[in-house]
Design goal:
mainly alpha, de novo design (two linked rop proteins), 74% helix, elongated
Protein backbone atom coordinates (compact mmCIF):
# COMPACT_ATOMS: atom_id res chain seq x y z
CA UNK A 1 0.00 0.00 0.00
CA UNK A 2 2.92 2.33 0.64
CA UNK A 3 4.07 1.91 -2.94
CA UNK A 4 0.55 2.49 -4.27
CA UNK A 5 0.21 5.71 -2.26
CA UNK A 6 3.68 6.93 -3.23
CA UNK A 7 3.07 6.20 -6.91
CA UNK A 8 0.22 8.73 -6.83
CA UNK A 9 2.90 11.41 -6.71
CA UNK A 10 4.70 10.20 -9.85
CA UNK A 11 4.42 12.47 -12.89
CA UNK A 12 1.38 12.07 -15.14
CA UNK A 13 3.57 11.06 -18.09
CA UNK A 14 4.57 7.94 -16.11
CA UNK A 15 0.95 6.84 -15.77
CA UNK A 16 1.20 4.04 -18.35
CA UNK A 17 4.84 3.23 -17.70
CA UNK A 18 6.52 3.24 -14.31
CA UNK A 19 3.39 3.94 -12.26
CA UNK A 20 1.41 1.19 -13.93
CA UNK A 21 4.26 -1.32 -13.69
CA UNK A 22 5.02 -0.78 -10.01
CA UNK A 23 1.31 -0.81 -9.16
CA UNK A 24 1.02 -4.22 -10.83
CA UNK A 25 4.15 -5.91 -9.51
CA UNK A 26 3.92 -4.90 -5.85
CA UNK A 27 0.41 -6.25 -5.09
CA UNK A 28 1.11 -9.26 -7.29
CA UNK A 29 3.57 -10.48 -4.63
CA UNK A 30 0.72 -10.69 -2.10
CA UNK A 31 -1.74 -12.18 -4.56
CA UNK A 32 0.68 -14.89 -5.68
CA UNK A 33 1.52 -15.70 -2.07
CA UNK A 34 -2.18 -16.15 -1.32
CA UNK A 35 -2.43 -18.51 -4.28
CA UNK A 36 0.68 -20.39 -3.18
CA UNK A 37 -0.75 -20.81 0.30
CA UNK A 38 -3.92 -22.34 -1.09
CA UNK A 39 -1.92 -24.69 -3.32
CA UNK A 40 0.27 -26.05 -0.54
CA UNK A 41 -1.30 -29.48 -0.86
CA UNK A 42 0.77 -29.87 -4.02
CA UNK A 43 4.49 -29.23 -3.69
CA UNK A 44 5.15 -28.36 -7.34
CA UNK A 45 2.20 -25.92 -7.54
CA UNK A 46 3.20 -24.34 -4.23
CA UNK A 47 6.80 -23.81 -5.30
CA UNK A 48 5.73 -22.52 -8.74
CA UNK A 49 3.57 -19.81 -7.16
CA UNK A 50 6.34 -18.92 -4.72
CA UNK A 51 8.66 -18.51 -7.72
CA UNK A 52 6.08 -16.13 -9.21
CA UNK A 53 6.15 -14.17 -5.93
CA UNK A 54 9.92 -14.01 -6.04
CA UNK A 55 9.89 -12.71 -9.61
CA UNK A 56 7.30 -10.03 -8.84
CA UNK A 57 9.21 -8.89 -5.75
CA UNK A 58 12.42 -8.60 -7.78
CA UNK A 59 10.56 -6.68 -10.48
CA UNK A 60 9.22 -4.29 -7.86
CA UNK A 61 12.79 -3.66 -6.72
CA UNK A 62 13.74 -2.73 -10.28
CA UNK A 63 10.87 -0.23 -10.50
CA UNK A 64 11.87 1.23 -7.12
CA UNK A 65 15.39 1.79 -8.48
CA UNK A 66 13.94 3.56 -11.52
CA UNK A 67 11.71 5.72 -9.31
CA UNK A 68 14.70 6.80 -7.23
CA UNK A 69 16.94 7.41 -10.27
CA UNK A 70 14.18 9.51 -11.87
CA UNK A 71 13.85 11.40 -8.58
CA UNK A 72 10.21 10.40 -8.10
CA UNK A 73 11.11 8.86 -4.73
CA UNK A 74 13.62 10.17 -2.18
CA UNK A 75 16.70 7.96 -1.87
CA UNK A 76 16.03 7.09 1.78
CA UNK A 77 12.44 6.06 1.07
CA UNK A 78 13.53 3.99 -1.94
CA UNK A 79 16.23 2.36 0.16
CA UNK A 80 13.74 1.47 2.92
CA UNK A 81 11.25 -0.03 0.48
CA UNK A 82 14.01 -1.89 -1.35
CA UNK A 83 15.18 -3.31 1.99
CA UNK A 84 11.66 -4.47 2.80
CA UNK A 85 11.59 -6.35 -0.48
CA UNK A 86 14.98 -7.89 0.34
CA UNK A 87 13.41 -9.28 3.51
CA UNK A 88 10.42 -10.56 1.56
CA UNK A 89 12.72 -12.18 -0.99
CA UNK A 90 14.74 -13.82 1.78
CA UNK A 91 11.58 -15.36 3.24
CA UNK A 92 10.40 -16.54 -0.15
CA UNK A 93 13.73 -18.19 -0.94
CA UNK A 94 13.63 -20.02 2.41
CA UNK A 95 10.13 -21.26 1.60
CA UNK A 96 11.17 -22.31 -1.91
CA UNK A 97 14.22 -24.15 -0.58
CA UNK A 98 12.26 -25.95 2.15
CA UNK A 99 8.70 -26.29 0.86
CA UNK A 100 7.98 -29.44 2.89
CA UNK A 101 7.90 -27.30 6.04
CA UNK A 102 4.85 -25.50 4.65
CA UNK A 103 2.91 -28.24 2.90
CA UNK A 104 -0.32 -29.72 4.25
Amino acid sequence: MDIFQLSKTFPFEERYALTDQIRRSSPSVCANLAEAWRKRRYKAAFVAKLNDCEAEAAETQVWLKFAVKCQYLPVDMGRDLYGTYNQILGSLVKMINSPDNWLL
